[in-house]
Each structure stands twice: as structure tokens, then as C-alpha cells.
Amino acid sequence: MNVFGVDIGGSGIKGAPVDLERGDLAEPRHKVLTPQPSTPDDVAGCVAEVVAHFGWSGPVGVTFPGVVTGSTIRTAANVDKSWIGVDAAALLGERLSGMPITVLNDADAAGIAEMTFGAGRGRKGTVIMLTFGTGIGSALFTDGRLVPNTELGHLELDGHEAEKRASTKVKDDKDLSWEEWAQRVQKYLAHVEMLFSPELFIIGGGVSRKAEKFLPLIKGVRAEIAPAELQNNAGIVGAAMAAGAR
Ligand code: BGC
């Protein structure tokens, strides 16, 4: 069965129909730039455009880069603050002619996809997926079960929020070398490990495509560290999985 997945990010909004048996995109994804400011109405318009690109009609799963309880947005660190308090499923449902909408946190969606089809397949115990992008997202699993909205990117590191020290946006903005950035990521992973003692860290986000450039530089973390296998499509696939599971 195919279900549509959309990943709303700080810089791009991308989506595609997803083949839920294979856990992969059924067609190449379509991407539009996130409008600035990224207000609910403008972002909803972009989501509608991505869905319309495929002539899709049916269930749609959507990720959001903030805390989502039910389908209400509770935080918006890297998108317009006017999202806070918005029922995203209701808003998007109106724009998408009543198609059933499921909304969840972006890292949670990516984690769900990786735990079923990627680096976390069949893994028991504590597994933490971390996505590095505009911010840092987290998804915590115990014996394959998600604890949603963990927000570990906002842990304090060296007196700052971790995502203000170690996201890939910070790497780009400050023009950090792979070595400099890996050192920050290492410190962050050690901190998260101290708190949760996971067996496995799955590293996602666009940077997972370049895992060979920085994972070998990370030392002193006991847990296994694996790059996301679905790479930057994990959010789209996980969104569609969540919508398909309803
Ligand atoms: C948000 C998280 C999100 C992460 C990655 C953080 O700033 O608070 O909810 O998962 O960025 O987009």
C-alpha cells in the first residue's frame, strides 16, 4: 500500500508517495523551499503544492520540527512561532480537501522509519536516533517502542543549547571543519550517553550521507554509532508509516 509522506524542515518541505511494504519512496520526492517567514498558512500552502505535484488523494503523514501532542504544535524552535497552539492536522486537512492527516515530530518520524527499515531494524534495548540539520532532533526507543517528543537537541552543552553548538547549520554558519564539528558532536553524544546509556545511536539528517567524514573521528562513546540507512528520506517514510498505522 502507498501512503503520502511530507517532511517539513527549516529549509525545505519535501514529500512523496511511500511504498509501506518496502519502506521506500514509490516515486522520486518533490521539494519546495520553506517560505520565510514559515507561517502556518504559507507552509500549509507548500504542503498542498507538494501533494498536488503527485495528484495524490488519500491519507497524508506530515512531520513537524517541534513538539506535537495529538496534532497540536507545542514548540517551534526553527520555524515561525505562530505555529504554537495550531492544530496542524485540522489546518492541513482544510488545505487538502479533507484528506486524513497525521502529524508527528520530524525526528520521531525518522526514528520510526529507521527502527523498521533501517539501522535500528530488530534492535532491542535503548536506541536513540539523532537528526542533525537546522536543529538537532531526537527519537528515543526502548525495545522498539517510541517515547515521543524527547527534544534532546535542547539539552545544555557548554552553557548553550546543544543544537546551537552541534547542528549542521552551526557547522555551515561557522564554517567548522569536520574535525571541529565532530568534536562537538562527540561531546554531545557523550552527554546523551551519560543520561540514557543507549546501545545504539543512529545518526540522521542530510549529513548522514557523509558519515565517513565524521563518524571515524568520534571517539570515547561506548554505544554503537550507525548512520541512518534511509538517509534524508527517513522523515518522509516515517510520516507515511504513522499515517498508514491509523
Ligand atoms: C526541535 C525538534 C526537532 C529538531 C529537528 C528542534 O529544534 O525542537 O522538535 O525535532 O529541531 O528538526
From TrEMBL:
Write down the InterPro entries for this protein, in alphabetical order: ATPase_NBD (IPR043129), ROK (IPR000600)
UniProt-recorded name of the protein: ROK family protein
Q: Domain of life here?
A: Bacteria
Which regions span the lipid bilayer?
A: none
Among Pfam families, the record links this protein to: ROK
Q: Which family does it belong to?
A: Belongs to the ROK (NagC/XylR) family.
